[in-house]
Fold this protein.
Amino acid sequence: MSTLSNLLIPAVLFFALGVIARLIKSDLKFPPDLAKVLSIYLLMAIGLHGGYELSKADLGTAVNSITWALILGFSLPIIGYFALVVTRKVSPLDAAAISAHYGSVSAGTFLTAIAFLDNSGIEYESYPLIMLAVMESPAIVVGLLLAAMARKQLAKSEGRTVVRDEDDNGGGWGHLLHEAFTNGSVVVLIGSMIIGAISKPSGIESLKPFIDEIFMGVLCLFLFEMGMEAARRIKEFKKVGVPLALFGVLMPLVGGAVGTFVGYSILGFSVGGATLVAVLGASASYIAVPPAMRLAVPEANPSFYLTLSLGITFPFNVLVGIPLYYWFAQYLAAV
Amino acid sequence: MTNLYPHKLVNIITMDILQDKLAEMFRRHGVSGYTILRVRGEGASGESAGTMDFEASIMIKVIVPEEKLQRLLDGLQRQVDRGYHLTIFVSDVEVIAPHKFSKPLG
């Protein structure tokens, strides 16, 4: 394993530049909404690309991948929740909100892993891309269930009942489930995959400059900004504390190990494909889940889950995790 | 001479994601309209630079006749009790077309 070669990918270097720019208090600022524009582009491009590849794929493997994506999406937050509750570092409601982030996925980390594999000339399957789309939502649902459970328990221990809010039409269950499954990034990704799968190959060919040639450049720009965002969270470290920060490193290791095993041993992917599944297991959402939790679990402290997912786990995965999961997949392949 | 009529201006600073929820509440409280501004700042819930979706802050301005104020404030208070961060302040304003503020949103 050569960690250095992973760090010398332009996308990762730009991430580091973003972190440094923030640390030296540079006046560099990206225009508002740029990250949003870039992430829509990235999901669209990767969706078109993956959908096109998947149109030639095997249906059985695709169905298997989706099944395992659901299993991972539902079980990882439960593991995270119990780890947090047992260690008693945060309240059960905070634990519910945090674990929802860890069951969901980060497309930014996934794309960085693709850059890593491309850069090292490693082949990978397109099935993990469907898994990326599938894994965005289940953890939100689990997080909401865990929060509802914790809320009930808390009320019981304080001798009161959970009051239903008459003004709750905007945050009720139906509304939240609708949000979880019609989330913007899910729509862009799945929609682009379908377009990629049913379009005429000549049509996809004409999109090549858009989906292939500028892709890595846009990813650099995106990670540049995300590096700044991640570093902005560093000053919140104090609030989070060492034990919780440790969770931000250990949870991805657990998720990454489970993901590698699922990808390589159960789904039978190549080392590259297994690395991508590992990244899905290891990464924590910082785009889809935070607003959902802010809306549904207002009692949880946002600086906990944001600092953990964006300030600790994301940089950890980009800088250390991806080569580590790749190494683990290679190890599984060798034994 | 143009007459002026006293009304109440309710200002709410909160997070962008609460927009739909509050708009729905305004409708049920017979509010005639509201204005939303995108804002940035720093406070009890940390810095809101507004670069990421989940931390974008908004300021909602609602003008209501005095008799509708208390019910609206009660509704807002219930949101605060549930744990949402809302900074609410009310000021006196004078309007020139009071009928505009008595007609509920459709």
Q: What stands out?
A: Chain B touches chain A at residues 15, 17-18, 20-25, 28, 45-46, 49-55, 75, 78-79, 82-85 (CB under 8 Å).
